Amino acid sequence: MENLIKNNLGQAAFLENLYRSNPADFKRTFFAVYPEIQTELTAQIWHERLRNTQDEITWGGLKDWSFVGVIALIVAFFMQLPDLLSISHDVYFPRNMAFIVMPGMAAYLTYKQGLPFKSLIVPFGILLFSMVFINVLPVGPVSDTLVLTCIHLPILLWMVVGFIYSGANLSITSKRIEFLRFHGDLLVMCAVIVLAGGLFTALTINLFNLIDIKIEDFYFRYLVLSALPSVPLLATLVVQQNPTLVSRISPVIARIFTPLVTGMLVIFLAAFIYTGKDPYNDREFLLIFNGILIGVMALLLFSVSEATKDSASSFQRFALLALACLAIINNGIALSAIAFRLYELGITPNRLAVLGSNVLVLLNLIFVARQLLGLLKGQKNLSDVEASMTQFLPYYALWAAIVSFVFPLVFSFQ
């Protein structure tokens, strides 16, 4: 649909018919390509029209639900596969969980984007190679490199999903920003679906308990286990069909939690200094510290994607700059502790993987903070901030690939 919109801006009747055939899909695609055509008068008129359109919730057609239903059944089959083939859950699920969840999303997005086969060769190749690689790793005592591969492969697959979502144009900054915003909306919708599913589960189990029928084991083993991995797929369908439905909630969440997390980090740093906690020799503290930093980084990236909108206030951007600076300080502490442990205790796969990740995060934070500062001073524009936020995505994917595929070989599967 992107090419249809861009190539037919001068044909009012054609665009009108295209819009009426699928308003939700047209609106989502139009806003995705608008940065490329915003100099055209027709595009500006459509932008004003669509921006002020009151959306109704749409649920998609029978083809969409049939496609999602088939994928959900396939996902359910793979979730029950260990029991059918007597495979250890501890071996099967850590290695394959990402391949159960993300390919379904990728397949649905491919179906909606209508990508040609040649555009799918690289992502399909990465998916297939990753699946084979992690499943041929030695089975035995859990190794550090296996755990690292299980952690980092989902990041690589996430970028594959992003490549498909962008219509094989993930190199374009606006596409990367749209992908991050999509995931913010996706997380919100997943939370709503899980809460609704939890309520349904509680009602169902308690109703059957009233007549002395215990269904807990069956319900969780077969229904919940089979359906839970399809939640992101269902959320993807809802968000794709209603691109502005959740997008009104996500900015609210970002605006509320950004100042709250900023205040929490200030208090944490003060308490950290007051208590004299030693991150250099306390491994558990350092792991939790890095986990918090990852959460802060995710919030920052999501919030920046909202703050680059024209409607964002100066206070919101200032709060983001403060959050970025505090995250840089925290990252610096973690990075120094990791470097100290490497120097004192030697190189291990875990320490090297965390060191590389922290270096990438620190550089990303510095770039984002510089651009936010320039934006507040009037020296930078919104596109500069967007570029600084998204330009590290390929490097995250590259590092995830190195940790996943190279570390097990270099460290002899230790």
Give a written overview of the molecule.
This is DUF4153 domain-containing protein. Keywords: Membrane, Transmembrane, Transmembrane helix. The chain crosses the membrane at residues 65-85, 117-139, 146-166, 186-208, 220-240, 252-273, 285-305, 317-340, 352-373, 393-413. The chain is built from 17 helices and no strands. Helix 3 (23-37) crosses helix 4, helix 6 (89-113) runs antiparallel to helix 7 (117-136) and helix 13 (283-307) runs antiparallel to helix 14. The chain folds into three domains: 2-51, no CATH class; 68-241, no CATH class; 250-410, no CATH class. The N and C termini lie far apart (49 Å). It has helices at residues 2-7, 12-21, 23-37, 41-51, 62-85, 89-113, 117-136, 144-165, 173-210, 216-227, 231-241, 250-275, 283-307, 314-345, 349-377, 382-390, 393-410.
Give me some keywords for this one.
single chain, 414 residues, 3 domains, 17 helices, globular, DUF4153 domain-containing protein, transmembrane helix, transmembrane
Give a concise summary.
Keywords: Membrane, Transmembrane, Transmembrane helix. The protein has 414 residues and is mostly helical.
Chain-averaged pLDDT: 81
> SS-based structural class?
mainly alpha
Rounded to the nearest angstrom, the distance between the terminal CA atoms is: 49 Å
Q: Write down how many β-strands occur, each being a DSSP E stretch of 2 or more residues.
A: 0
Contiguous low-pLDDT stretches (5 residues minimum) are none
Reported for the largest beta sheet, the result is:
none
Tell the overall outline.
Answer: globular
| Number of helices in the DSSP assignment | 17
Helical residues, percent = over 70%
Percentage beta strand: under 5%
Number of domains: 3
- The whole-angstrom Rg is 23 Å
Could you state the order of secondary-structure elements as H and E?
A: HHHHHHHHHHHHHHHHH
